[in-house]
Amino acid sequence: MAGAIRQAGSLALAQLHHAGMRSPRELIGGAPLYPSEDAETGARALSLDEISQLAEDFINAAVRARRAGFDGVELHGAHGYILAQFLSSEYNHRDDRYGGSLENRARLLLDIVRAVRERCGKHFIVGVRLSPERFGQKLAEMQQVARWLVETGVIDFLDLSLWDYAKMPEEEAFAQRSLLSYFTELPRGNVKLGVAGKIYTPADVARCLDAGADFVLLGRAAILQHDFPHRAKADPDFTPVQAPVSAAYLHSEGVSQTFVDYLDRFPGFVAK
Ligand SMILES: Cc1cc2nc3c(=O)[nH]c(=O)nc-3n(C[C@H](O)[C@H](O)[C@H](O)COP(=O)(O)O)c2cc1C
After folding, report:
1. Is 168 helix (H, G, I), strand (E, B) or coil?
2. Which of 32, 82, 186, 248 falls 20 to 30 Å from 20 in CA-CA distance?
């Protein structure tokens, strides 16, 4: 739960700043580090040594997770966090091997993924979360990154964070069919494709699977009912609890008051 709260905290802070900003100055007490300098936030560009250290920090975090008994990790390449910033031509203006072409912008993520596999062994589950649009990302580029991730031959799953599994692309050139379809159509070998966003009922789950996803990721539905997957499996017609719900109800689901306070920022979630 502490991890969930920390994650939640970072999301809340990000909402207070612009989409690419994940470590505001007032939180970290100094200039944030970005792929490149950013006047709006006062961020400075990471040096090449710092990029190596950043990669090592990600890899070591995965190694620690394995030692601590976890079955796998998910690398966060979405939502404007640092790896997503590297992927984005909007935030990454470097002119070295980590910037410019998409190949260069994707280098850090791909290197980390390969190293995590190497250092954590073949039985450790390794996945990557991607935002196919917003947060400075372009759909065609994220499709290509997904292809490259599959081609590394080392990831077990891809997690598409769509915020709405049925969402249509914002880019006009792609707007005729669902965002999800641009990823289900890619060859993916043994890599499992997951999707997250407004999956609230067993019918939503079925629609995602019918659309070609291999699995789903639940956010709010799992906060509302910690045992949603078991209930849905036992009874595909079960009617899930819908937000808004009271703080008392959330406490009964094991949600702390700190997290309830955080959830309060999501419109229509915690009943007034
Ligand atoms: C309270 C809350 C905190 C979240 N924090 C994070 C986060 O730190 N990192 C992340 O990748 N996604 C985070 N998300 C997004 C979820 O992982 C998920 O992608 C999103 O909520 C859409 O799924 P849902 O509609 O099932 O909630 C958060 C969502 C909620 C509701």
Report:
1. coil
2. 186
Q: Which residue range is the domain that position 90 belongs to? A: 2-161
Catalytic residues: 81
Q: How far, in Å, is the centroid of ligand 1 from the Cα of 76? A: 12
pLDDT exceeds cutoff 50 at 2: no
- Distance from residue 216's CA to the centre of ligand 1 (Å): 13
Q: Is pLDDT at 13 greater than 80 in this prediction?
A: no
Q: In the predicted model, what is the mean pLDDT of residues 215-238?
A: 96
Q: Does residue 60 register a pLDDT over 50?
A: yes
> Residue 250: CB partners within 8 Å, gap ≥ 6?
223, 259, 260, 263, 270
CA angle, 213 as apex, 210 and 219 as ends, to 5°? 105
Q: What is the pLDDT of residue 30?
A: 87
Query: Is there a domain that residue 129 lies in?
Result: yes
pLDDT digits (tens, 9 = 90+) for 144-202: 999 999 999 999 999 999 999 999 999 999 999 999 999 999 999 999 999 999 999 99
CA distance 184 to 33: 34
- CATH code at position 7: 3.20.20.70
